[in-house]
Amino acid sequence: MKVKIQDVQTVQPPYSRKTEDIVPLVEYWLANQPSRYIRKAVKIFEGAQVDKRYSIMPPETVFSDLSFEERNKIYTQQAKKLASEALLKSLESKSWEASSLDYIITVSCTGIMIPSLDAFLINEVGLKQSVVRLPVTEMGCVAGVSAMIYASEFLKANPNKRAAIIAFEAPTATFLMGDQSMTNIVSSAIFGDGCACVLMSSEEDAIGPEIIGHEMYHFYDQTHMMGFDLTNQGLKMVLDEAVPETISEHFPAILHPFLEQYGLQLKDLNHLIFHPGGKKIVQTVEQLFHDLGKDIESTKKVLKDFGNMSSATVLYVLKDILSKQPKSGDYGLMLSFGPGFTAQRLLLKW
Asked: What's the CATH superfamily of 210-349?
């Protein structure tokens, strides 16, 4: 049973600011710190290779003492609004009725909603009462690819079905004003808010890149590398500085055996659809692919224009790749890393 990607759409939150305009807010945030520490923080923001980011609340509100409850209320309101917009945008682009969807997978790790986002979409968009729901809430940046893997498995087992994946992330809802650690500074410098929707199908007449294969790769004894600690103030970022080095060490084991299952090598890949976790991770991957003449320009473009939007980011990269209209026969590799520590891969063929 062939499973194909039908459409990718993105929706931006209502507020945006260039990095140069964020710097005064960073200086305000860290005003009680030594001037040397503030200069270092500003350099991190200026050197993060993020020119602009979007947010679900005004930047001035992000850098305020809002409580976790207040931030989560904004997160919930915007999740419902932006996810509905993204889903409707995708459905309209394919002339699909909302009631024709058989599976809906919602992805988010930057806020808490019970019922989960998919339940609200059933009512807001008008999904059928028998739609199968799957909320993915605790996989962080890797969850966009994870959701596509789950959808692929659903669709492969069931012919003539349709699935939608909606990834909504708002890292600004997790910002802790009182956490002036270097970890929080680095994560604040690279993250932004965003929402993406992917439509997939196992219908016989579906036209689009086919999902040839997928696989997860789990790093043993590395659960400390990335994630959130739940504190009384909210979600506190965990981000080990050894992440890029760890990825580099495991890269051969992550890629070569996976591609060999399909008779492929790295040189056979035409498109790299890589999640831009941050400048250092992007540089690490770019160096690994440089000798093969491969580029990750779409990945760098998304990081520059939007920042790291956690699970939604790789879907923005996929949209950019699709806009280039790959040739028939081209291969593409989607790759993300996330808490666990884990890497997840998805092989596409046009």
From this structure: Thiolase/Chalcone synthase (3.40.47.10)
Q: Which DSSP string corresponds to 48-116?
A: SS--EEEESS-HHHHTS---HHHHHHHHHHHHHHHHHHHHHHHHHHHT--GGG--EEEEE--SS--SS-
Say how far apart CA 145 and CA 55 lie, in whole Å. Answer: 23
For residue 222, which phi and psi values (nearest 5 degrees)? -130, 30
CB environment 312-349: b (16+ within 10 A), e (fewer):
bbbbbbbbbbbeeebeeebbbbbbbbbbbbbbbbbbbb
Mean pLDDT, to the nearest integer, of 113-123?
A: 96
Is pTM beyond 0.85? Reply is yes
- The CATH architecture to which 4-201 belongs is 3-Layer(aba) Sandwich (3.40)
Domain with CATH 3.40.47.10 in the chain: 4-201, 210-349
Statement: residue 87 has pLDDT above 90: yes
* 48-79 pLDDT per residue, tens: 999 999 999 999 999 999 999 999 999 999 99
Residues in contact with 180: Cβ distance below 8 Å, sequence separation at least 6, in sequence order: 29, 30, 32, 33
Distance CA 152, CA 156 (A): 6
72: CB partners within 8 A, 6+ apart: 111, 112, 173
Torsion of Cα atoms, 282 then 284 then 286 then 287, to 10°: 160
- Beta pairing partners, 239: 226
Each residue of 37-46: pLDDT tens digit? Answer: 999 999 999 9
φ, ψ for residue 304, nearest 5 deg:
-65, -45
Residue type, 8: V
What count of residues does the chain have?
350
Asked if residue 298 has pLDDT above 80, the reply is: yes
Which residues face 308 on adjacent strands? 191
Question: How many whole angstroms separate alpha carbon 120 and alpha carbon 83?
Answer: 10
Question: Under DSSP, is residue 327 helix (H, G, I), strand (E, B) or coil?
Answer: coil
Minimal CA–CA distance to 57: which of 109, 119, 110, 118? 110
